[in-house]
TrEMBL record, chain A:
One of its GO terms (molecular function) is ATP hydrolysis activity. The keyword ATP-binding applies. Pfam families: ABC_tran (PF00005). This is ABC transporter ATP-binding protein. It comes from Arenivirga flava. Gene3D superfamilies: P-loop containing nucleotide triphosphate hydrolases. PANTHER family: ABC TRANSPORTER, ATP-BINDING PROTEIN. Belongs to the ABC transporter superfamily. Keywords: ATP-binding, Nucleotide-binding, Transport. InterPro entries: AAA+_ATPase, ABC_transporter-like_ATP-bd, ABC_transporter-like_CS, P-loop_NTPase. Residues 8-233 form the ABC transporter domain. CDD domains: ABC_BcrA_bacitracin_resist.
UniProtKB/TrEMBL annotation, chain B:
This is ABC transporter permease. Keywords: Membrane, Transmembrane, Transmembrane helix. The chain crosses the membrane at residues 21-48, 60-81, 102-128, 148-170, 177-198, 238-261.
Amino acid sequence: MARRGSPIEVRNLTKQYGSARAVDDLSFTVEPGRVTGFLGPNGAGKTTTLRSLLGLIRPTSGSATIGGKRYAELDSPLTTVGAALEANSFHPSRSGRGHLAIQAKAAGVPAARVDEVLLRVGLAEAGSRKVGGYSLGMRQRLGLAGALLGDPSVLVLDEPINGLDPEGIRWMRSFLKVLAEEGRTVLISSHLLSEVQQTVDELVIIAKGRLAYQGDLAGLAGETTVTVDAPRRAELQAALAPHAAVQPLPNGLVVTGLDAEQVGAHAFAAGIPLSALSTTASGLEDVFLNLVTGEHTTTAMEGAGR
Amino acid sequence: MTLIRSISAESAKLFGLKTWWILLLVMVAYVGAFAAGMAAIFGGLLGGDQPIEGIAVAELVYSLGSTIAYAFPVLVGAFIVTAEFRHGTLTPTFLATPSRAVVLSGKVVVAAIVGAVFGLGIVLASVVPGAAVLGATGAETGLDDPDVWLIMARTVLAMAIWAVLGLGLGSVFRNQVVVIVIVLAFTQFLEPTLRVALGFTDLNASVGQFLPGAAGDALVGGSSFNAMMGGGGDQLDWWQGGLVLGGMAAVLVLIGALTTWRRDVD
């Protein structure tokens, strides 16, 4: 079944809380048909951005729209956008089915959908139990069921993998892939790259409320460094400095922006014999951490070719 | 259309949990016992001189419930809002119905409905045991008197308004415990004290009749509190009482709409 989703567009979004800027002039676009990971450490502004998109928070300036419309302007919000935010916004004395039935009434969705989505997320039996007795994983599934209730073409899920057991994580991954393959727009947030690495096609990384990276995983992984050393280390550094970023470390010079062959060629041209030459691919998680702690931001963006 | 959906969702929310009928049962037991006791006292079981007689006894017995029990619909109305804050459920509520005005309107309608249900509960809990005791003692039950039936109808209306007022309180204060403390302190202590104290001089008495409880009593009619207090204090006409009480409810809901209902949902 094809459910062609609308793009999510965030334009110059800013949210000020007192003197603190939770989101600072943030712009990015989320395209349909793929899973986009929205990453950043806790406190980076992910939740504020998602809540602004969903009309729960009024931005200080800028906009966040779905198919060009603000959430409040959507004719039928739950059948356009399905969202699951934090996993504890349920009344503990209500059953999962009761919670969904109320959402269905409010959104004008047929009551029969409730059992369909409970079945789809694997809560068919637990649905009649009180939410107060649910595990975090079950509440995540209930949240997802709520998001799917209106069969929306756009899905916005805040930390959907958090709290799932390994079997649940695998289930969620394949589930999100299927939703994207159906043509939907899927945006999922996380504070751990490793958590979503196998799930997402596209990444939006923010730090301190600002965009740090947008692109695919390959672009993020493009970061490799060359470690090189020579007895005449100072001369080697001088020879390489015009061509690349060079950082002296105890075990040699770490060169960013050139590959090993280019480094060797520069050394040869300068007549400096090398004592060591090796390539190190930074782990994705290292690159991610560097990005969100504010170091090497520009380099990584350039490395991604953007 | 969205309003009708919102009303349907909000009533499912309220009536799907136990809170409302537990409060209703407690209130019915309380009012029923009180009405039977009052009917026995004033109906002449005790003999001797009675401060009031005739149809006034029946009117007093039937209207007392609203005087002693209006805190129940106020609390139920308040819980419609405070429960959302307590459990963080405004997020799914606003996701399904992004217009806050529609959500608030839906809640006001449901508050009025549940308030009317509590009003019916008060009427039944007062009239059934009250009339039985009055009949048994040979006093007039007043059930053939249209004025008595009007008291019952206005009880239902008054409790509907009280529940909306409670919803307004809940919207202004948000916190369930704070609202419970305010409602109990005001209805059980502050207002009764003020009404007695203000009843001592004519000028103050004319102020006292605008207190919410006094306005609510005026709307129901039957002058129960004044009768119990020996007739001290003025009382508004029933429609004036209705306007005063309705006005207070409207102001509280409006303040809530301009403050709480405009806030970001974090």
